[in-house]
Amino acid sequence: FNAALNDSTLFKFQGFINGEWVAADSGEEFDVINPANGECIAKVANLGASETQKAIVAAHEALEVWANITAKEKSIYLRKWYDLVIEHQNDLAHIMSLEQGKILSEALGEVIYGASYIEWFAEEAKRIYGDLLPSTTLNRRSLVMKQPIGVVAAITPWNFPTAMITRKVAPALAAGCAIVLKPAAETPLSALALAELAQRAGIPKGLFSVIPGTDAVAIGEQLTSHKLVKKVTFTGSTRVGKLLMAQSAQTVKRTSMELGGNAPVLVFSDADIDKAVEGTFAAKFRNAGQTCICANRLLVHASVYDEFVTKLTEKVSHFVLGNGMEASSTMGPLITNDAVENVSDLVADAVGKGATVNIGGAAREGEGYFYQPTVICGLDQTMRLSKEEVFGPVAPVFKFESDDEAIAMANDTEFGLAAYIFTNDQSRCWRVSERLEYGMVGVNETAISSEMIPFGGIKESGQGREGSKYGLDDYLETKYICLGNI
Ligand code: ADP
User: Fold this and answer.
1) Helix and strand counts by DSSP (H, E) for the chain
2) Angle between helices 104-124 and 71-87 (to 10 degrees)
3) Which ligand 1 atom lies nearest to the CA of residue 214?
4) Which of these, 243, 253, 79, 245, lies nearest to 151 by C-alpha position?
5) CA of 78 relative to ligand 1 center, distance in Å
6) 195: CA distance to ligand 1 center in Å?
7) Is 164 a pocket residue for ligand 1 (Cβ < 6 Å)?
8) What percent of the chain is predicted at pLDDT more than 70?
């Protein structure tokens, strides 16, 4: 497929360690599958523990090189990387759509969104400030400086194969760290293309290595146990996040975790229903429902429930499922057949307990891993859909009668990433936003993310923030220096 790229050398299928493209020590390769048709699009080097160790050691050595480069120069390197990503946006989108399945326009949107983190942290690299504190005695001065935490290990998921990487790699490099990345085995090609562009930008060798591989346990164990790694940053499931935190505890590594979500959308009786439907639609079905801030539970006031459901169902009926590379497609496949089965099980559970399917409600027959966009009603708290993250194009609509009930339902989950509310009542905006136990709340808006905001969750959705002026903190240590007897 690389013939279709403007720059076919962006198609990389080896690991990237210390500035070199490498085969696996074992010589093994693994298949990258196009989820739209099940075809193998590439065979990629299957790296493991030994290569991970080499990348960590190289990263540690590269720290010294990076420490001798000024903040301004680091910023210039990052900016160059950003420019290259933008220049090659169409190729990167093409690669992403093939390996991940999302439609090309969404893939392009992600490349630009992902690049914005590089641009942002190129700017922030020059704004890492310290402090001069008041002292307890006249003959001393108390200083605070920020220093890079050191070697960072990053593990990323398949749902945003570019943005989840730039969000970690750009702040790490801006802070003066070096980073070893293990991308999801489903989507290594986007990560490797980013590494190629980072190298072209002149970012010194060893600072950013990529370990593609299917043995996540072996690679993860190295990344979380190696003494030279000082921080682990992860985006993925809560189950794996907890495991990585436990493993990292043995050497007291810092961790940043961006884990599962179970985002509620609260639609109050005074809401603009058309806006609520539009916002919910976008938040629910983006990336075929496979984002951690996807609307997962739609909680709608009884007085507007029927209108909301009718309008949402009408909008959903226009989706065209298909290969993301085809212009006519408005929704791509899910990532794997297992993903389709998980969604099918959740819908079957609800239907078995009395829910009704308004539209969709089944996998699509034929090639590829497609599930029909679905609206399902008549749900209650006994159904798995009320508790579990769907990660597919299924919109479960619940009914509520009072604000207190809606807030209680919204908070009745171990997750706390994003929540959305639709209301035109100013005081309700404040009251409800403050009571929602979530790291991010969208009021009359569901497209809430950008490089300029702190993205992250509370409760079992994680810790740490990505993007914004807060996003560098996760990669910096605070050092206090006492100048005495002066
Ligand atoms: P998802 O549902 O998005 O696949 P996962 O948490 O399983 O969520 O995967 C996210 C990332 O974590 C992927 O890169 C995957 O390979 C990696 N991963 C999965 N299991 C482990 C593990 N035991 N140790 C380290 N990384 C893991």
Assistant:
1) 13, 20
2) 170
3) 16
4) 253
5) 27
6) 20
7) no
8) 99
Structure tokens at 64: 């010294």
Residue in 187, 224, 232, 240 to alter for ligand 1 test, most ligand atoms within 8 A of Cβ:
240
- Model's pTM, two decimal places? 0.97
Mean pLDDT of 347-354: 97
For this structure, is 258 an active site residue? yes
Q: How far apart are CA 140 and CA 373, in angstroms?
A: 66
Alpha-carbon torsion angle 166, 172, 174, 178, nearest 10: -110
Q: Rounded to the nearest 5°, which phi and psi values hold at 299? A: -105, 115
What DSSP string describes 100-158? H---HHHHHHHHHHHHHHHHHHHHHGGG---EEE--SSTT-EEEEEEEE--EEEEE--S
For 154, the token pair is 């990053």
Nearest protein CA to atom 25 of ligand 1, as residue = 220
CA atoms within 13 A on the CB side of 295: 33
Helix (H) or strand (E) holding 466: none
186, 258, 389, 466: which is the annotated catalytic residue? 258
CA of 157 to the centre of ligand 1 (A): 7
CA of 134 to the centre of ligand 1 (A): 46
| Distance, CA of 423 to CA of 436 (rounded, Å) | 15
CB of 187 closer than 8 Å to CB of 110: no
Q: pLDDT tens across 276-285, in order?
A: 999 999 999 9
**Torsion over CA: 323, 329, 332, 337 (sign):** negative
Structure-block tokens of residue 218: 């072996």
Is the confidence at residue 2, as pLDDT, over 80? no
What interface predicted TM-score (ipTM) does this complex get? 0.98
Q: Tokens standing for 1?
A: 């497929």
**Strand pairing of 254-258 and 229-235?**
parallel
pLDDT digits (tens, 9 = 90+) for 151-164: 999 999 999 999 99
